[in-house]
Amino acid sequence: MSRLTRAIRFVRHWHARVGVLAALFLLLLALTGLALNHTDALSLAQKKIDSAWVMRWYGLQSAAPQQGYLFESGYFVGDSERWVMDGYDLYAPSGVPVGAIEIDGIRYVATDASLHLYQPDGSLIDQLSGPALPAQPIRRIGKHGTFIVLETSRGIFASADALTWESSSAADIIWAQPQALHDKVADEAAPYFAPSLSLERVLLDVHSGRILGHYGPYLMDIAALVLIALALSGLWMYVRTLRKRH
Question: Are strands 124-129 and 138-144 parallel, antiparallel or unpaired?
């Protein structure tokens, strides 16, 4: 048996076996690539994955809130990514809250650049920022009777309706202060702050190999080289078969 014949048999032997594994790898790349090519249509960025084992794989841990702002009959907790009030996931948080108060059944949540007004059921009444505020940044929020009070870099301002603001020098302002959450409140709010990732992010990591850690992309590079080798060896065997037939 000639060396060429032995080489051809060797290539065919391993081409079939490696080809099966490569086909699985190629299928994974094709499916994830197809999905990522239609991210907007499939709303991949909006779909969340919060599976416990996936979060452990990424090294993410739950950061349950320990402090928040308590109202007479409710609570507010929030960070830069999520706001929760009385079990309602609030719409479009826009920063880290600096305080929250309740006046006549309306909840006011302030960040350094905005003031949000909510109904007790979590419905957004209004969101004020820029010229609608007396000054920025807002340092803290409080109340004086039925007046909303904001402390800003330009001083303290009060308003009865959050529309017109006047300078205030009241001495008995009740400023919003974060407080330790009761166990019942903390347990109710905790699921909203469990770590999660978008489906788009997970698919991107699978497609690139980064889901396997630092060496994942190198593994994907090796797999790509194997695919190239399979393609070239398959082409070589096909060309030889054609020549024999002719």
Answer: unpaired
